[in-house]
Amino acid sequence: MKIFALVFCIIGCVAGIEHISVNGSDDKPNVLVIITDEHNFRTLGCYRDTLSTEQAEMWGPGSVVETPHFDRLAKEGVLCTRAYATAPVCSPCRAAMITGMYPQNTGVPTNNAELRADVPTLAKVMANRGYQTSFVGKWHLGGDGKPEWAPSIDGGFKNKTYMFNRGHWKKFSQTKNGAKVDARDKSGALSYGVANADKESFSTDFLTDRAIELMAESGNQPFLTIVSYPDPHGPNTVRAPYDRMYDHLRFLPPRTYGRDNVAVPKWLGNDKKHAVFRGTQMSQYFGMVKCIDDNLGRIFAALKESGKLDSTIIMMTSDHGDLCYEHDRLNKGNPYEGSARVPMLIRFPKRIPAGQTYTHPMGTVDVTPTLLGLAGIETDHEFEGRNLTGQFVGNGAGEGGQMTFLRNSGTNPQWVCAVDERYKLVLSVNDQPWLFDAEQDPDELLNFYRRPGSAVVTQRLAKALQQYGAERGDAHLQHPAIVASLEKCLSQ
After folding, report:
1. Residue 459, helix vs strand vs coil
2. Is the pTM here over 0.85, yes or no?
3. At what angle do helices 480-490 and 455-472 cross, to 10 degrees?
């Protein structure tokens, strides 16, 4: 056994593996990242607790879904109230999340693009430190393949048997070669059908089972496991009993729905994108969220039974939000809160004090450097995102004036955005600047640009955007209309 350990040590040193014994070690915590898709932050009880009743119950009095397991993550760790999707569309945000780089520098500025092979990823860095790396669920960084199980462009994850590239499939089955989509339409083509899905075949349950199995198979080797659920993204359908669980609620349109008495930003899009409010859609959406929460409870139980719960960094976030009828819209793609703001919960009792509320802005581009920082893993790569470990470990301490930056998906500039603790400045190619004030107008109905007292704030955010564009090579900031808006803001 001593000879084996010596050989392992020599091999580990050659491979760049640091401080990993044959039985693992306490200084290499496990990492579990839970990613939901198109998830409105107001559906989580822990976020509603930070809001006024009016803001928390956006779809009518009492129309809420209870999420005790998400809430546990917040209670036993840190809840980030100003976390944003770096680009509020699936692929570019996921690329930023997994690389710590802005979308324009990952090869994935838009959906269905291919992640650059030369960009370091969370999986590559952690694999080089002796971690077993696994990805379960929706990847969406490998190009057009759909579903494409175990895609060739995999970000360096070693175990990708249950990684699929694209799609919001609702029903899976296990085969001797891995998983397959187990729903077809009348023509025989793969479909998002949910008929006869149960607690073993429904996508959320199925992917949870696979993640639990892979974490258990890691034995004493530290693991990085990402489980990426395709819900609560549309189509808004879910298996029984979740499909009828919230039918009794009286869903009402949000306060921002059907408001003809306020100006509408041109970057929001045209009238054809207006959504007709349907409470049944919200009932199904709540059901999807509840199903995910119940499965998070199963993950908690499995980690506790294995003795790995408190030695595992657990992060939960989403690739973007869902407006869920706010401002007459569904889904995402714009800088409104419901679209761009995401849940961000982190539990790691060995380093993060429980019960924190982190109110400084952060972006999904900060995920990789922060996870590496919490795990104590150093790398020579210079990330564009920030390592927020010191602020989380320091019980939420952080200097004021911090910002995060957002951009529209795609290579054609539409808008860019800077967010601080209170304000949000949006510059676009087809409208005047928009300045939102989260304290005076949490519904984001009013433009505070050029209002008395707004000049200093506008200038500060505009300067930060200008610096971001230069440092991070964001061509959106070079569009003539955005340059003109920037100059207007700076000259106030």
Report:
1. helix
2. yes
3. 140
